[in-house]
Amino acid sequence: MDKDMNYGSDYKYIPATSVGSGVGIQVLPDLFCHTVQIVNINLVGNPETKEFVLVDTGMPDSANEIISVTEERFGANSRPKAIILTHGHFDHVGAIIDLVKHWEVPVYAHELEMPFLTGQRSYPEPDPTVEGGMISKMSPMFPNEPIDLGNNVEKLPSDGTVPHMPDFRWIHTPGHAPGHVSLFREKDRALIAGDAFITVKQEYLYKVLTQEQEISGPPRYLTTDWKAAKESVIKLEALKPTVAVTGHGLPMSGELLTSSLQKLVKEFDRIAVPDYGKYVDKNIH
Ligand SMILES: [Zn+2]
Ligand SMILES: [Zn+2]
């Protein structure tokens, strides 16, 4: 099943870290968030039943770390039922081919992400000129060529259900990437937001390093449609999540999450949208 898969030719380890790197947090009994360098992965499922999925796959070269975190939580040789991707940026698909080969499990993503996951199209180049932050300036070194998962990746079902995550539904939250999705569970209002909004200012090396908690729009250097990104945040705030795990930064819950999301919606143009950058057109806001 794996013979046709390959990473882009610019795939490489990226030397970047944070105080959270290698640390896992049990956010809910069946939601475990682990930080790989500067990005989060989520294991969703109860360790007692051993039925679980992996949401997103970390940085390049992190497969061994992800496998050992998984086995620590679910037992030796355990494997998820599936891998769900919030989107296909390099820091969310970093270990995916190694993991698919190791576990032989299907991958699901939104249909608009398919060109970036099957070697057909690169994302627009990251923008090092965008307002703010050393990480933005480093962004041209990030892998940008599409990976090719061949026929190992499938479209998420169009009815909103998420394979092997029975209580969750996926919500299309474009802007940061065209087929970006967030995952929401009504019964406890748990949200896996991906990069639709995050809880750290990801552009700034120091803030990433310290993981200082602060509501933020999607990472600026890779966000190309700010109008859609704003609509996506409005959509997620309307769900009134009580706990959120995001692609970057620490989990957030309760009153802090509620008030932070309200503030992000109200002040999106100031907090999230950069003052300048090649994907910014202030006229449309
Ligand atoms: Zn991203
Ligand atoms: Zn990201």
TrEMBL record:
CDD domains linked: yflN-like_MBL-fold
Source organism superkingdom: Bacteria
SUPFAM superfamilies, alphabetized: Metallo-hydrolase/oxidoreductase
Keywords: Hydrolase
Stored Pfam families: Lactamase_B (PF00753)
Metallo-beta-lactamase domain residues: 38-248
InterPro entries the UniProt entry points to: Metallo-B-lactamas, NDM-1-like, RibonucZ/Hydroxyglut_hydro
GO molecular function list: hydrolase activity
Protein's UniProt name: MBL fold metallo-hydrolase
